[in-house]
Write a structure and sequence with these properties.
The chain has 222 residues and is an all-alpha fold. The chain has one domain: Four Helix Bundle (Hemerythrin (Met), subunit A). The protein contains 8 helices and no strands.
Length: 222
């Protein structure tokens, strides 16, 4: 097994184990079926996406597995987003532990659907855009992608992430966890503008693309 194959297999396992430890320690119980379902959906989505990229686009896979930003400002924004996501899991798990919320099963299921939908949008965006790295950078062979979802909005991956993150507290059966969604939105929009600035300055044709595709994140709205 080569190094990329090992990383493709190990990365989702490491992530799910780490998230599981955080969730179940915070909840102080493994009797948390909402968390088991959430981890299964999230982990399976992540794993299938990586396996698809390993089979079909290993260059993009390497870009997705590289999670270290080069610029300090981008590193800070990336760190804040990660902390906000972990806070959503932490608060939602504490909610389960201390029974702060009474979330109906139907809402939990809607949360799970949001997680699936969000990851599906991310997957489609990755299929459309071979340059969709985890980090913000312009590659030597970088080209503007204006097909598929990118013909409608300029940042479909961020839209998918927002939908998935909104679904996370609901999938874990927490109303209070939704409070962490507010800073997450702010941070993703901040990162979006950082990316816009870099692409506009360093990617040929991106300014023209922005003139044709007006919406950043929400189709026909913004």
């Amino acid at each position: 097994m080569n190094n990329l194959a090992q990383r493709t297999f190990i990365a989702p396992l490491q992530l799910i184990i780490s998230l599981g430890v955080l969730i179940f320690l915070s909840a102080w119980t493994i009797n948390f079926w909402q968390a088991w379902v959430y981890l299964f959906i999230f982990g399976l989505s992540f794993m299938l996406t990586l396996f698809y990229l390993y089979k079909n686009d290993q260059r993009l896979l390497q870009r997705r597995l590289n999670v270290i930003e080069k610029e300090n400002q981008q590193k800070k924004t990336q760190l804040y987003i990660n902390v906000a996501y972990l806070a959503a899991l932490f608060v939602s798990s504490l909610d389960h532990r201390f029974l702060w919320s009474d979330v109906p099963l139907s809402v939990v299921m809607i949360g799970d659907i949001f997680v699936i939908l969000g990851y599906f949008i991310i997957f489609i965006a990755l299929k459309d855009n071979a340059f969709a790295a985890t980090t913000i950078e312009v590659f030597p062979d970088h080209k503007v992608v204006s097909s598929g979802l990118y013909a409608i909005i300029r940042h479909p991956m961020y839209l998918g992430a927002i939908i998935m993150l909104l679904g996370t507290p609901l999938a874990l059966g927490s109303w209070w966890g939704i409070l962490t969604f507010i800073p997450i939105i702010f941070l993703i929009v901040r990162r979006l503008f950082e990316e816009e600035k870099i692409l506009s300055h360093h990617l040929s044709g991106y300014k023209e693309y922005c003139q044709n595709v007006k919406c950043y994140l929400v189709p026909f709205i913004w």
